[in-house]
Amino acid sequence: MAVKIKLMRLGKIRQPYYRVVVADSRTRRNGRAIETIGKYHPKNEPSLIEIDSQRAQYWLGVGAQPTESVQNLLEITGDWQKFKGLPGTEGTLKPQPEKVDKLARFQQALAEANDEPTTAATTPKKKGGNDRVGKTADAAPAEAATKSDDVVDATKDADAPAAES
């Protein structure tokens, strides 16, 4: 039986991640695997590559053939150089950044929110028809009061010149 070390694709559309598996060469890409020896997340920055070096060395030693993509991953981790006896067994794998504690991030966001001024509203006022109804109802009694005052003043003025003559 010909054994290959290959990638098994998992994940969603445009969000792939892979398992590095040892499988029969005749099985399909995502088919049954003999053993899972690592994982590969290409979308992370830098890419996450975790391969069990001891198991990879064992399978390479008993004759398992890596695919091109897996061989590139093994060269990055240094396992391929170790198997072949080449210099550079430390590989060129970049370390993953440290994850920030969620509680610390929450406390920082809370402190930033408390420092911001809260004088203005977060949402603007609505502009709509309800404001016009309120304005016309308030304006109507005021206009009526000014008209009645004008009428009274006009009658007083009309009577006043007649009295003078």
TrEMBL record:
<keyword id="KW-0689">Ribosomal protein</keyword>
<keyword id="KW-0687">Ribonucleoprotein</keyword>
<dbReference type="Pfam" id="PF00886">
    <property type="entry name" value="Ribosomal_S16"/>
</dbReference>
<dbReference type="InterPro" id="IPR023803">
    <property type="entry name" value="Ribosomal_bS16_dom_sf"/>
</dbReference>
<dbReference type="InterPro" id="IPR000307">
    <property type="entry name" value="Ribosomal_bS16"/>
</dbReference>
<feature type="compositionally biased region" description="Basic and acidic residues">
    <location>
        <begin position="146"/>
        <end position="159"/>
    </location>
</feature>
<feature type="region of interest" description="Disordered">
    <location>
        <begin position="111"/>
        <end position="165"/>
    </location>
</feature>
<protein>
    <recommendedName>
        <fullName>Small ribosomal subunit protein bS16</fullName>
    </recommendedName>
</protein>
<dbReference type="GO" id="GO:0005840">
    <property type="term" value="C:ribosome"/>
</dbReference>
<comment type="similarity">
    <text>Belongs to the bacterial ribosomal protein bS16 family.</text>
</comment>
